[in-house]
Write a structure and sequence with these properties.
single chain, 93 residues, mainly alpha, 91% helix, extended
Length: 93
C-alpha cells in the first residue's frame, strides 16, 4: 500500500513548520556549551562579512572542480600503475 501524495505534502508542511522551532533551543545549547560569547560574536561578524559571503558562495564550484582534478589525477596514477606493472611483468619474463 502506497501512501497518498497528500500524506507526504502534509507531513512535509508539518516538518517545515515545526522543525526549526524544535531544533533551535537544542542547537543554541550546543553552541553555548562549546563557545564563549566572544567566539560566537566573532563567528557572526566573520560570516556576515562580504568577503566571507563571496568565498562561501563560490565553494560549491571550487569543490566540484577540485573533485574533477582529483579524479583525473587518480585515473592518471591508475594508468601509471598498470603500465609499470605490465612492464615489470614483461621484464620478468
Amino acid at each position: 500500500n502506497e501512501l497518498s501524495a497528500t500524506f507526504w505534502e502534509e507531513f512535509t508542511e508539518e516538518i517545515h513548520a515545526t522543525g526549526y522551532a524544535d531544533l533551535k533551543p537544542k542547537l543554541i545549547q550546543v553552541y553555548l556549551d562549546n563557545y564563549t560569547e566572544a567566539e560566537i560574536d566573532h563567528q557572526l561578524a566573520y560570516f556576515s562579512h562580504p568577503m566571507t559571503k563571496a568565498i562561501t558562495a563560490k565553494q560549491p564550484v571550487v569543490m566540484q572542480a577540485s573533485m574533477q582534478v582529483g579524479q583525473a589525477w587518480g585515473q592518471a596514477i591508475g594508468t601509471k600503475i598498470v603500465d609499470r606493472l605490465t612492464k615489470a611483468m614483461e621484464d620478468r619474463n
